[in-house]
Amino acid sequence: MGAAYDLRSMDEHLTLAPAVADAIALAGTEAAQQGAGAVAPEHLLCALVIVAAEDVCSLLGTPVDVAAVTDRSHGLAGAGEPADGPLPLAHGTLAVLEVALREAAAGGGEVAVEHLLLGLLEAAPDACAHVLFDAAAVRRTVRRAAAAARATRLD
What we know:
This protein is mostly helical. The chain has 8 helices and 2 strands. The mean pLDDT is 82.
């Protein structure tokens, strides 16, 4: 898949579910191809959606458009010249992984998709909001609802 990141320094008993290990590796590959300076939470979220789309949709309780998530994450994470070799994990990504590890420890130890998603939602909520949801579409929906509510009050 991509570069292997040794996360055992965070916890020597750390075990990653295969989908989580694949998502972390893919995030590194994506970040390097985009020319990012480090693997950002946006890269990790995009990779998680690609690797475990069905699980992510189930956990969120809503469909997720993988292509749209990929497009939005690429726009947020920045771009430069493609990098050779593995990139470091950004501070925000380390915070995500720390939360995921804490969540996993409460449930048995293996970091699964749900733990990584919880880590992303807690440690990188802005990135999640921008990547998972089309803010312009949500604004249009809210404006339509507000206009309908106004019209109802005026009647």
